[in-house]
Every structure is written in C-alpha cells, then in structure tokens.
Design the sequence.
C-alpha cells in the first residue's frame, strides 16, 4: 500500500490557511485526511467547523493541541485543566463529523518550565498528574490523549517530556484506548533507544499518532521552524515508518512541518511537493 492511502495533512504545514482553505486544499490534492488545529477551529466556532469537516469528506486524524500543564500556579493549573476539557469535547465532535476512519486523538504537549524555574522534575510530575486528571473525561468522550515527547532542546520552553520512553512511562498507567503517545519523527529520530521504544509502544497499542517531517541543517534562528519536507534532511523516514507500521500502527500518517519558507508558499504547491516526497514510501 502506498503512503498516500493513509496520508494526512497536519494543518500547521500550511499555517496561513484558514479552516476552509485547509480543507479545500487537502481534498483537492487527493489527501484523504487532515490533522486539525484548535485555533482555526475556534475562528469559525466548533459547530461550523464540524459542518465544514463533514462537507469536506475528509477523515480527521487528530486535533492539536492540548496540554501545557506545567505551571506551578494553582489558578493557571485550573485554567489549563478547563481548556483541556474543552479540547476533549472538540476532538470528540470533530472526529464524529469526519469521514469513516476518523480518530478522536487529542495531541498533548506537556509545556516547558515556569518562568525562572529550574525544577524540571517538578514540571514533569505536574504534567503527569494533569494528564491523569483528564483520563476519566477522555474515556467518557471516547477520546485518546496522545502524549507527545518533544526534542530535548525544547524542554525549557515547550515540552518537558523529552523521549518516547518517558511518554510511554506515563501512558502505560492507563487504558491504551484512552492514553497513548505521538511518534513525531522530528522529535524522536535522534534517540538511540527509539526503535526499542516504538516496539514497546506497539506491543501495548500505544501509538496514537504518527507524524513525519525531516530534520534540516543548519537550524534556523528559530529552532521551532527547523522542519523540512520528507527527504530533505537527515531522518531515515523509511526505516522509522517501517518500524511504526511493524509495531501495528494502522492509522493515518500526518505530515507536520513548521517552516517559514514553506508557510510562505502557495498551499497547492506545498501539497504537491508533499505528495511527491512521500510517493516512494510504502506502508
């Protein structure tokens, strides 16, 4: 099977597109699925967004993003919890509106260190506690919380969960239908333990989302925008994809790219390049 049968466009890849433009461009390119972001959904309202998704004929592969749990302020912790409960409801409705095979997967980014803090362990413990606090709501909504480990260079400001092993250590306390992990090539390709952890995740059906992109060098000044199209950089995506598929993952494969040059290009051109870049890959 070609990857195109399971390809999904993560909406961040064409960041400047509004929801209507993203849905239209994805469907026009023949890509069968889309990974949505909350901000464009909020711009039109959830009810309208669900109707737009239904009309598009696309599957929904995930919603980005929940999380940001690591504040040490009680008021901020409560606000984060309330926001994540809203996100659970959003992905439940969006996935229900999507075509058959849509996945009610909420991607969780843990968050970084509070301002002036050096307590990395404390931040990780708060993230773990906050995820546990959402499990009952997610289970009731039949939503999967997908914990995304981030590259260690983001530990201070964005994601204190820095390895697939650490994400699995959290997820394995809960039912795999409710808490899983995101395998994002950009964040985990460097890890000497990555293939062992992918196999571990697969053995317990914990892979809730698989995202592909590439690691390009030199890194730009804003390291957040350092992803390239598949095949442009240093990640062995064929080997990584084979490992994920062999581990039993059968869901959509999202292309998620943060890159200012790509964002500046016409949407249709970007999608054509994605299809070309992924056409040699099989699943």
Sequence:
């Amino acid at each position: 099977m070609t990857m195109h049968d399971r390809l999904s466009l993560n909406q961040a890849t064409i960041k400047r597109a509004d929801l209507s433009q993203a849905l239209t461009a994805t469907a026009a390119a023949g890509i069968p699925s889309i990974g949505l972001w909350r901000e464009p959904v909020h711009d039109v309202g959830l009810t309208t967004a669900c109707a737009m998704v239904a009309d598009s004929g696309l599957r929904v592969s995930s919603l980005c993003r929940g999380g940001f749990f690591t504040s040490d302020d009680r008021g901020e912790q409560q606000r984060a919890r309330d926001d994540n409960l809203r996100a659970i409801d959003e992905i439940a409705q969006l996935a229900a509106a999507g075509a058959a095979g849509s996945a009610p997967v909420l991607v969780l980014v843990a968050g970084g260190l509070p301002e002036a803090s050096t307590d990395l362990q404390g931040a990780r413990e708060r993230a773990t506690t906050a995820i546990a606090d959402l499990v009952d709501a997610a289970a009731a909504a039949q939503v999967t919380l997908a914990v995304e480990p981030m590259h260690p260079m983001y530990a201070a400001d964005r994601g204190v969960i820095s390895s697939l092993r650490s994400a699995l250590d959290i997820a394995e306390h809960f039912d795999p239908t409710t808490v899983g992990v995101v395998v994002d090539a950009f964040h985990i390709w460097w890890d000497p333990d990555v293939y062992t952890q992918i196999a571990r995740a697969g053995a317990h059906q914990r892979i809730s989302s698989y995202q592909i992109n590439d690691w390009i060098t030199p890194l730009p000044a804003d390291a957040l925008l350092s992803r390239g199209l598949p095949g442009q950089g240093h990640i062995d995506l064929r080997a990584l994809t084979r490992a994920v598929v062999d581990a039993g993952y059968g869901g959509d494969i999202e292309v998620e790219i943060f890159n200012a040059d790509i964002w500046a290009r016409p949407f249709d051109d970007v999608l054509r390049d994605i299809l070309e870049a992924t056409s040699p890959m099989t699943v």
The longest strand covers residues 59-67. Residues 74-97 form the longest helix (24 residues).
